[in-house]
From TrEMBL:
It comes from Pseudonocardia endophytica. Gene3D superfamilies: Spore Coat Polysaccharide Biosynthesis Protein SpsA, Chain A (3.90.550.10). GO terms for molecular function: glycosyltransferase activity. Keywords: Glycosyltransferase, Transferase. Residues 1-22, 422-441 are annotated as: Disordered. Pfam families: Glycos_transf_2 (PF00535). Pathway: Cell wall biogenesis; cell wall polysaccharide biosynthesis. Belongs to the glycosyltransferase 2 family. Residues 93-224 form the Glycosyltransferase 2-like domain. This is Glycosyl transferase family 2.
Length: 441
C-alpha cells in the first residue's frame, strides 16, 4: 500500500488515468470519479500495425471524457507518423534480472509472453535469491519459452551478464521486473535489427503505467524517461544536434528497462560493468555506461519508439527517495569512470564549454509539456533526449535534491571501491574505451 502521508510537494493535478487511444477510433474515457485527468498514448494505424506518435493529457470531469474530446486531443497531439520496423522472426532472448520481487516478476513475464513475437525465450535471472519464491513463480508458468536461472552474485550487471552468457540467440532484449512490455515490443526490436545491420543496440520509450499517487507523478516528472516518438540513430560519425556533450549524455540513449543488444557486439566489449548498477555499491549507472561504451567503440545505437514498455513507478516516498539516490550514485559513478579513462576524459573536457552553454538553456526551461491550442490539453514531451537529464527537483520529496547532490558527489569514490571489490571477486569491469580503438572525437 502507498504511504498515507507524503513528503512530496503539494500536487494540484490529482490522480491521472493512464491509457491509450487510436487515431480514427477514439472511445470514451470512463475512469473512476477520483481521476482528474487522463494521459493517453496516441497511436496511429499503419499497414504494419499501430505505432505511437505522442502522449497527450486532457482534463476529466468526474473521471469522464467523451470520445469527441479524446479525438480532438489526439488529433491536436499527433504529428509525423513514423513507419515501424519491418516484421522479423529473428529469435530474441528477453532477460529479466531480479531479486526478491516475485509478484513483479509474474506481472512482467505475463506481459512478455502475451507478445506477438514468434521466436522468443524469456530468461529470468534471480540474483543471490533470498528464497525460492521467484523460482516457484517462474516454474508455475509451465511454458517452454520461460527459463529460470539462479545467479549467486548479487547485482543487475551480474544478472544481465549471466543472461548474455546463457543466451542462444543473436539478440538479447533487457527489461526490468517492474515493467510490462507492449505486445509488439520484441517484434519491433527484432525488426529494427533486421532493418539496420549496423545497429549494435537499441532502446525505446519507457512510459508510466500508473500516475495515481503524488509519488508516481513526481517520479514521472523527475525521471523523464519518455524520449519522444521519433526514430533516432546515434554514432560518433553522426553526432546529434541536441547534445553538446555527445556521447557523454547519459539521458540521450535510453535506459536498461528497455534496451536490446547484438550479443556478439556486447560480448566483444566485455559485457556490463559489474561495479555499476543495482546491487553494487554504486546502485545504478550500468545501463547508461554500456550504451555510451557501445558508441565510444564506434558502433551504432538506435532508438525505436514503437518498441515501448510500461513502467510501474515507485508508489511511496521512501521508495522514490531510494530510487533517486540510486540514480544519482549511478550517474556520479559513471562520471567517475569517464574521469578515470584518459581518452574519454580528454574528449569530455573538450565538450565542457558547449555543455555549459547548453545547461544555461536547460535551466531556463519551465515546463516539459507543450500546449496544443485545445484548452486543458497538453502534449507530454518528457525528456528531450538531449542534455536535459536533470531531475525536476521541485517535484521530489523534501530533501531529495540534497541527497541527489550527495549521491552525485560520492558516486566516483564508490565506483573505485566497487570496481576493486568486483575484480577481487573475479567479476568484470571493462574499460570505457579500448586502447586499440579509435579515440573519441
Amino acid at each position: 500500500m502507498p504511504d498515507s502521508r507524503t513528503d512530496v510537494p503539494d500536487d494540484p493535478t490529482g490522480p491521472t488515468w493512464v491509457g491509450r487511444t487510436e487515431i480514427g477510433h477514439a472511445e470514451d474515457v470512463a475512469a473512476p470519479a477520483r481521476f482528474t485527468s487522463a494521459r493517453l498514448l496516441v497511436c496511429h494505424p499503419t499497414p504494419a500495425g499501430t505505432v505511437p506518435v505522442a502522449q497527450v493529457e486532457l482534463p476529466l470531469a468526474r473521471g469522464r471524457a467523451s470520445a469527441a474530446e479524446v479525438a480532438r486531443a489526439a488529433s491536436a497531439a499527433a504529428g509525423h507518423v513514423p513507419q515501424p520496423p519491418p516484421v522479423s522472426a529473428e529469435p530474441v532472448t528477453v532477460v529479466v534480472a531480479t531479486r526478491g520481487r516475485p509478484d513483479s516478476v509474474r506481472r512482467c513475464v505475463q506481459a512478455v509472453l502475451a507478445g506477438d513475437h514468434p521466436a522468443m525465450t524469456v530468461l529470468v535471472v534471480d540474483n543471490d535469491p533470498p528464497d525460492d519464491r521467484t523460482e516457484r513463480v517462474v516454474t508455475a508458468f509451465s511454458d517452454e519459452r520461460v527459463r529460470y536461472v539462479s545467479e549467486p552474485r548479487r547485482g543487475a550487471s551480474a544478472g544481465r551478464n549471466r543472461g548474455l552468457s546463457e543466451a542462444r540467440t543473436p539478440i538479447v532484449a533487457f527489461t526490468d521486473d517492474d515493467t510490462e512490455p507492449d505486445t509488439a515490443w520484441a517484434s519491433r526490436i527484432a525488426g529494427a535489427f533486421a532493418a539496420d545491420p549496423e545497429l549494435a543496440g537499441v532502446s525505446g520509450p519507457v512510459l508510466a503505467a500508473r500516475l495515481e499517487t503524488p509519488q508516481e507523478r513526481a517520479a514521472d516528472l523527475a525521471l523523464a524517461w519518455n524520449k519522444g516518438f521519433a526514430p533516432r540513430r546515434f554514432s560518433l560519425a553522426e553526432p546529434p544536434d541536441d547534445s553538446a556533450v555527445f556521447p557523454f549524455s547519459p539521458g540521450l540513449f535510453g535506459i536498461g528497462a528497455n534496451m536490446a543488444v547484438r550479443v556478439d557486439a556486447v560480448r566483444a566489449l566485455g559485457g556490463f560493468d559489474e561495479a555499476l548498477g543495482p546491487g553494487a555499491r554504486t546502485a545504478g549507472g550500468e545501463d547508461i555506461e554500456l550504451l555510451v561504451r557501445i558508441v565510444l567503440d564506434g558502433r551504432v545505437l538506435g532508438y525505436v519508439p514503437s518498441a515501448f514498455v510500461w513502467h510501474h513507478h515507485r508508489p511511496s516516498d521512501g521508495e522514490l527517495r531510494s530510487q533517486m539516490r540510486g540514480y544519482a550514485l549511478g550517474l556520479g559513478a559513471f562520471l567517475g569512470k569517464v574521469a578515470l579513462d584518459p581518452r574519454a576524459r580528454a574528449a569530455a573536457v573538450r565538450r565542457l564549454p558547449a555543455a555549459a552553454a547548453r545547461l544555461r538553456h536547460i535551466v531556463r526551461r519551465e515546463s516539459g509539456d507543450v500546449a496544443t491550442g485545445t484548452p486543458g490539453v497538453h502534449v507530454v514531451t518528457g525528456g528531450n533526449g538531449g542534455d536535459s537529464g536533470a531531475a525536476a527537483a521541485g517535484a521530489l520529496p523534501d530533501g531529495a535534491g540534497a541527497r541527489t547532490l550527495r549521491g552525485l558527489v560520492s558516486g566516483p569514490l564508490l565506483y573505485l571501491r566497487s570496481r576493486r571489490r568486483v575484480r577481487e571477486d573475479g567479476g568484470v569491469a571493462p574499460p570505457l574505451t579500448r586502447p586499440d580503438g579509435e579515440p573519441p572525437g
